[in-house]
Amino acid sequence: MDSPSSENISPRSLDYPERNFWLANHPANNFNNTSDSATAINNNSSRVFPSRSKSRSRRVQQETSSSGAWSHKAEPPSAPSEMAPDDEASTYTQRLAYGQQDGRYTPPIAPATQEYRTQQQFVHPDRGFEDWHEEFVYAFLSVVSFVALAVFLRHYDGQVLPFSFGWAGGISFETGVVALVTLMRVCMDAYVGSSVSQGAWLWVSDRAQMRRRERDGAKLGDFRLFDEASRGVWGSFGLIWRMKGRHLGCVGAVIIVLGHGFETFSQEMVTFEQQSRRLDNETAAPVPARSEVWDTYLHQGFMGADLYPTLSTKAAVYSGIISTEIPNIVAYCETANCSWPLMPTLGACGECTTIPTVPDCNTTTNMCTYSTTSGTSVQNPLDSAERSIFRIAPSNGSFHQINSTSRAYFSVFDLISVTQSTDMGTIASASECALWFCLQAHRIVVNNGIQNNTVVSNHSTTSLALTNSAHGGEHVFVGIPKSLNTDNSTRYAVTHEAMLALRNFMTSITQGTVTTTLNTLDSSSDWVEAMWNASTGDLSEWINNFAFSLTNEFRLHGSVSSNTKRRYDGSATQMTPVVKVHWMWMIYPGFMILLSLYFLGHTIVASSRDGICGWKGQVLPLLFCAVDEGIYAKGQGGMEVPGGLEERVGGIKVEMFREVEGDGGAEGEGGAEAGVEGGRERGGGGSGGDVLGRWGFRAVEDDGEGGYRGRMESRGLDLGGKGEK
């Protein structure tokens, strides 16, 4: 029997002769062999191996062909003798003998020790990232979505909630936030789901089994758990329960579970607070009616010598005398909330002061005369009849001098009343009331649609200044304090003619009498009767009401300079929702993105380290992976029964192995016939040449020494339908 030629001996076969059945029995290596026997006995093992399968000849045909490729059309050479060493076998991955039972071939009985597995390492140093381009795109989009969300929220933080933005009529702010969060979660779920699916291949790989040699091994049914975990929450819980945190896939499952809360918790990122916001519209709160100069009057009589006020001014006088409540001038406010700066304007001020009365009784005429210091008087008979006599008359004033040069009075009048009754006797009282032009500072505010007008302060000091022949002069306000918020360049004045016109009219209506007895009332005019009614009540309130009516008239029909028309414009505000971002909630998606990126990177590195291609959740790789004949036998009929395959073979502990061959030698051991011919890939083999890969699954059992041993029927692991022992 010829010895194998040195040129055909694989370097790995020389380094590990005990792994080559044929080389181990060669005389040159001091192994026993018998040419006539039907079996070969290895000195290092008590196991008996039948002769190799005839399918071996097809592998020989590949090596001996001139092109180096395997031709399916080539006739397989005749099988060598059962005991003769195969001269061609040393160039291939050395096969152990196959046992035969019931016409089926079983995988090799190869010990899966640490040394054995070390020799099976297969790494793709240049393919670590080739299979993950799609996941990189999703990872990039998830990061971009997170950054876009942060920029989006930062832009609107503290701003008024936009009703809409974007295209096609706009979308709401809430929709924009949810859209970015959803895009971030969907992209994250895409690459995390792929990484979880890839975890199934890592979980069943032989190298992973070696690292877990003292713990529970992978089961064939674990593929279903990883697949379901990559699809949803319920499957993720199942994977976490099965792995008990022992596999990195549990991290991916946790990410998938927590990722479904993105849309829910995104509502906590943003709240909306109602705040008062000023509108930028200049016409939202224009300046209310105000005046700086009063020069409104009419000429009447012969040649227009008589001066009288306009009809609106007369109406304001009547309204002030008779009305009990004068409305405010409505300030225009576009919204329900407006405010204006302190606004100076011409107005009317009034005051009533109690003055003494002097009685003068004459028994001859049987009359008593009651007089004021200013000369106003009233007579009352000396009898016991109950009566009341009231008189109003203009006067030069004792407390308010109508001809004062420092105050622009347009009316001063006395009110005197004498009341006689059997119970109280005779009571006489008198008051002096005055009205004058003054400068007022108004604070006007509109809150929730309700206007409030308050006179903060006033100023009454004037100086009569002669201007020209057309005007007799002006009563100009001087010494205006800064508290009135006036402009130093603005002139506040009342023309002397306008003041005389109003004074003439007031003189004509502030005179008359009212006499009352038990059952009768006799008055000279309605407004005199109104003044008598006011004298019996709060006279100060009445005079202030009278002055307020005239103030409205001065504000509405006075004039202002062009320089100050827009100075006192107000600001319109409205309660608007303002975006409030709670940045602490951004930690949640940010942490999830970082954790998912780490999970993706770790999965890629682990796949490259263990020599696992990026198959992820693809179905075709499973179809082209071989499975032990025993597993096939045990699963027979399971596909026709709901859950039949899971029940029959799902609990079998398996490991995935790879056998590769190339011009640089061969790696991997055992199960060659169970492997399936794969495509040619780069990166395998000892020399980095083209590699022919075969992948498959084999059942494993604990060898009692911290490792796993290949499936073998004779050791009691019955996969033919009887279950594990």
Structural description of this entry:
- Helix 6 packs antiparallel against helix 10 and helix 10 (249-259) runs antiparallel to helix 16 (587-609).
- Strand 22 (512-516) and strand 23 (521-523) form a beta hairpin.
- Helices cover 30% and strands 25% of the residues.
- The protein is built from 19 helices and 30 strands.
- Mean pLDDT is 75; it is low at 1-126, 662-691 and 703-725.
- It folds into 3 domains: 1-97, no CATH class; 130-273 and 580-612, no CATH class; 293-562, no CATH class.
- The longest helix has 32 residues, at 173-204.
- The strands form 7 sheets. Strands 6, 10, 11, 15, 16, 17, 18, 22, 23 and 24 form a 10-stranded antiparallel beta sheet that branches.
- It is rod-shaped.
- The chain starts with 10 loop residues before the first helix and ends in a 15-residue tail after the last strand.
- The chain is α+β, with helices and mostly antiparallel strands and 725 residues long.
- The chain crosses the membrane at residues 136-153, 165-184, 583-600.
